[in-house]
Write the structure tokens for this entry.
Amino acid sequence: MAVANAYHINFDCDRDSNWFSASPVGWASWTINVTLFFLGNTLVLFEGSPYYVSPTHMWDIIQKHKISHVFFPASVIDEFQKRGYVPTDKHDISSLRLVLAGGSVVKPASYDFIMKI
């Protein structure tokens, strides 16, 4: 319950929050994210390569499910920046309120990249 409380207070969650996690299955984040159900949140999980389907696949998911909170490993954000995988003008990601990165150190350039999106 402490984790659910921390999510609610620190990440501005409410019953309308839709979370998206693109972290590998073996990461603790999958276990931790289950606590979002205590808050009545929706959780969209993705297992696979975030680069394989198309350059906009992750942004397509965010738009389709009206994701409000997303967790990307820091290495995924780095790779998005290197590959230029950004949302297009056709994407409506206005539902997105928070991008959470972890698993390794988030580089200042990665932070700047996400803020521009």
Q: What stands out?
A: The first helix runs from residue 2 to 10.
